[in-house]
Specification:
about 0% strand; single chain; 12 helices; 2 domains; mainly alpha
């Protein structure tokens, strides 16, 4: 990942992500086809099985607002997470930013959104089928449900399907890591080190290209190490499905970004710039404390909606540092 992201940049990422996505889809579709053939079911039968199972339930209202799976909480949190994790994220938007003009970028966004809708349906269908298949074969579901797919693919399916699963798994991991690594390097070099930026007097960055290349190399190496350490720490601390912990973590890391975005879009209040970073660092801590207190004292579980709370706390903090 480090070699081809450093040498190729975003142009290489576009091609590698396309190839990796194809491998990921091939792995999922081949698994669905084999499970269907093993259960002697066609596409229509599989759809009916999923619809009749508990895994097709999408709307949860019974538990009220205290339920972390409450539909309204999930819907609002999902919308906010999409805004910040996709629309405001250099990692996700860099492919659109690489388009030659805004019209092509808009086409790219609409095309990706349409394709992702069907890809998500395939992923959710595969998840339901894995549980149904495991129940029929009396396969014990692992405590960490992330291991269900590899358990079935590597121990209960033909070698060819297991191979496509491994390729798909590697492809999915690569497509996330390589784009993140490129985004971090680009954002840090441009926004923090001033690459390709001009001074207030119109003067361009005075560093020579070899100096910039050396700096970019060091930044790339640094973020590669940080990313590897983060993955190892997250894996050692994780005791739940990765997707659950990912969205919980996103609520704390992306909440300040949401607060900054909403504050900038809907107000014209001038704030003390030097205090923005302390506010954005304190907001997740206060959010974590409020979430814990709400659950222990009020029995209210914020779930993934902690991102909304975090954004609101950030906005309050920004109001407190407004210039008088």
């Amino acid at each position: 990942i480090w070699v081809y992201t450093f040498k190729g940049g975003i142009k290489t990422i576009i091609w590698t992500d396309t190839l990796q996505t194809i491998m990921f889809l091939v792995a999922m579709v081949s698994t669905i086809i084999y499970i269907g053939s093993e259960m002697d079911k066609g596409v229509g039968d599989l759809i009916s099985m999923i619809k009749e199972s508990d895994y097709s339930k999408m709307f949860f209202f019974d538990g009220g607002w205290g339920d972390p799976n409450n539909f309204f909480k999930q819907f609002l949190a999902g919308a906010l997470i999409t805004i910040v994790m996709t629309g405001l994220d250099q990692d996700m938007m860099q492919k659109n930013l690489s388009c030659p003009n805004i019209r092509d970028a808009q086409k790219n966004m609409l095309t990706m959104s349409s394709i992702l809708f069907f890809v998500n349906i395939i992923i959710l269908s595969l998840g339901a089928l894995l549980y149904i298949y495991a129940a029929q074969l009396n396969i014990e579901v692992p405590a960490r449900t992330d291991y269900l797919y590899p358990t079935i693919a590597l121990h209960h399916l033909p070698a060819a399907v297991g191979l496509t699963f491994m390729l798909g798994l590697i492809a999915a991991a690569y497509s996330s890591a390589d784009s993140a690594l490129t985004a971090l390097t680009t954002s840090f070099c441009v926004d923090f080190l001033g690459f390709d930026q001009r001074s207030p007097h119109g003067e361009k960055n005075k560093k020579t290209e070899p100096e910039n290349r050396k700096t970019r190399f060091m930044v790339h190496v640094g973020f590669s190490v940080i990313l590897a350490i983060t993955i190892l720490v997250f894996n050692s601390l994780n005791n739940d499905a990765v997707i659950n912990n990912l969205f919980k973590a996103a609520g704390y890391t992306y909440g300040p970004l949401l607060g900054l975005f909403v504050f900038g879009m809907f107000t014209k209040i001038k704030i003390k710039d030097k205090l923005v970073i302390p506010v954005c660092l304190l907001a997740p801590i206060l959010t974590w404390l409020i979430v814990g207190w709400s659950k222990s004292s009020l029995g209210f579980d914020w779930g993934f909606l902690n991102i909304a709370l975090n954004g609101a706390v950030t906005m309050v903090g920004l109001l407190l540092i407004a210039e008088r």
